[in-house]
Amino acid sequence: MKPNPQIVDTKEIPSVKIQLIPRDEIPSLTHIEIGGKTHHLGVLKDFRKHPRLASFLPEQARLSISWTSLKPGEVLSVHEHPTASMIIVCEGEGEIIGDCNQSLKAGDIAAIPPNNKHGFIGRGKKGFWGLSIQFEGLGLYEDREAPRVQFLKCPPKDFDYFLQQQEIYKNSYRQSDLLKLLETPFIQDPLVQDRLLEVLNSWANWFQRIIFARAAMGGKLKFQESAEDHIREEIGHNKNLLMARNNKPIQIWDPILEAAASWFYEQMLSGTDEECTVLVHFVLEASGEIFHTEAAKIFPHIEHFQEHGIDDNKHFEMGCSLLKQTIGLDFNNFEKILQQGWRMMEILCNRMAYIAKYGTEIKQDEDITEKAA
Fold first, then answer.
1. Do 336 and 240 belong to one domain?
2. Rounded to whole angstroms, how far apart are CA atoms 27 and 45?
3. What does the DSSP 8-state code read for residue 156?
4. Residue 363: pLDDT above 60?
5. pLDDT band at 311 (very low <50, low <70, confident <90, very high)
6. Pair (250, 125) in one structural domain
7. Could you count the other beta carbons within 10 Å of the beta carbon of residue 326?
8. Distance from the CA of 103 to the CA of which of 88, 128, 142, 229 falls in 20 to 30 A?
9. Entry pTM
10. Given a cut of 80, is residue 31 above it in pLDDT?
11. Buried-exposed string 132-144: b where 16+ CB fall within 10 A, e elsewhere
């Protein structure tokens, strides 16, 4: 039997870095003339027409090509290998981690030189499918008894590791349907704006219930005092948004919104002080800072968004301070609750975006779960 791949822990940083090449950067060829006749090609993008890809691809190669896929939240741990590799994202969303930390979407190419540390995480609604290509020698896992891969030692799960995971989820959230909506022409439609403000007002009402439930359940003194301080700074913000909407009643009711919002509420009733802190400060406040900062550009006349863009970061730091002072934290459990919280927030925000664009009516043949998630 050949040895299994070793676990290594090297600190050497390669001089050649991983490159990410969006599909849109590769020149397109749409037609070609042969024998005086024009032939339509649709869109053809030759990798060698892009200067960085042309310099990366060897002139002579023994290709190894594999499909690769990760489900949402599924992780391929950080590793390295002695051969250049290319990952072409064909469908879905993901994230590359290691020496390079960046979101990936369909059409993106990760050009990975030899010995660069890298791994991948599935993101979005379905994770991603991609092509893994190596240009010389055997494929990475072609010989299963002697893979050409060395997995790195996992970093210790301490507070710094937890913050790194937080940044990964924040980057993924920036690709949510709600954030994307703010960048599209849809958001200029007054009806879309009205529906968006209405569902945001509904969520603001839920948020008030969530933070009150957290304080009402009591707990360790420092967590209780922090929860009460948080209420004093947040109380009435839902009513401020209502007034910005000229006190229009909230008429939208949606089962997916209610289910996702009530999940956070239920966690306040059953979770530990530490778990509630993670959900409120690391998920709700951190996502709020990202969204409100962008929404303030669309609604400059509504002070609610201006204030929250600033306050939410302060409230995130409030949660950080609480956890840093706590001894004996279970970071394995924190990693789980953090993942669950961000996933529920993604469902909530994607549904908000859908309702803002199309309303709550659902066609008979529409997949409700797909549109929500």
1. yes
2. 6
3. P
4. no
5. low
6. no
7. 14
8. 142
9. 0.66
10. no
11. bbbbeeebbeeee
- Give the span between the Cα atoms of 119 and 49, in whole angstroms: 27
Say if residue 361 is in the same domain as residue 229.
yes
Residue whose token pair is 């799960």: 157
User: What 3-state class would DSSP assign to 102?
Assistant: strand
Are the C-beta atoms of 319 and 158 separated by less than 8 Å? no
Q: Are 241 and 338 in the same domain?
A: yes
CA distance 53 to 252: 49
Task: Reply yes or no on whether the pLDDT at 100 is more than 50.
Answer: yes
CA distances, 300 to each of 179, 309, 352 (Å):
16, 12, 20
pLDDT at 28: 86
- Closest C-alpha to 21, from 100, 107, 114: 107
> Based on the domain organization, do 216 and 323 belong to the same domain?
yes
Identify the three-state secondary structure at position 299: coil
The length of the chain is: 373
Could you count the other beta carbons within 10 Å of the beta carbon of residue 96? 23
Q: Tell me: the pLDDT tens digits for 140-190? A: 888 878 888 888 876 667 788 888 888 888 988 988 999 999 999 999 999
* Residues ≥6 apart with Cβ < 8 Å to 62: 135, 136, 137
**In 3-state terms, what secondary structure has residue 146?**
coil
1 domain-assigned: no
Domain that holds residue 36: 7-152
Q: How confident is the model at residue 106 (pLDDT cuts 50, 70, 90)?
A: very high
Residues 203, 207, 213: CA angle, nearest 5 degrees: 140
One domain for residues 97 and 189: no
Closest C-alpha to 200, from 348, 333, 13, 14? 348
Looking at residue 355, its amino acid is I
- What CATH number corresponds to the domain at position 212? 1.20.910.10
**Burial bucket for residue 279 (CB in 10 Å: 0-12, 13-18, 19+):** buried
